[in-house]
Hints:
- By secondary structure, the protein is an alpha+beta fold.
- The protein is built from 1 helix and 5 strands.
- The protein has a 5-stranded antiparallel β-sheet, covered by helices on one side.
- Mean pLDDT is 87; it is low at 81-88.
Amino acid sequence: MPTIAQEGGFRFIIHPREYPFEPPHVHVKFAEHEVRIELPGGTFMDEPPAGKRSAILQAYAKHAQTIYEAWVHIHGGDSSWRRRPRRH
């Protein structure tokens, strides 16, 4: 699980092995919390703790291009984001 970026106490991590039905995303770890952000749009896949949404999105925005490029490098393929259907 390489840490791709760090900003203001948030670590942005991409797992090399993910479920094939999940869309591209980055894990954000901070304190005892973890949320996922869908790539490339920056939509939360998990509800962030109260009062943290804005700070997480600001930190993500500073590193969005690096995170995007790392995801493509780790998971292969080109830079076109193909949405995979979600299974519930």
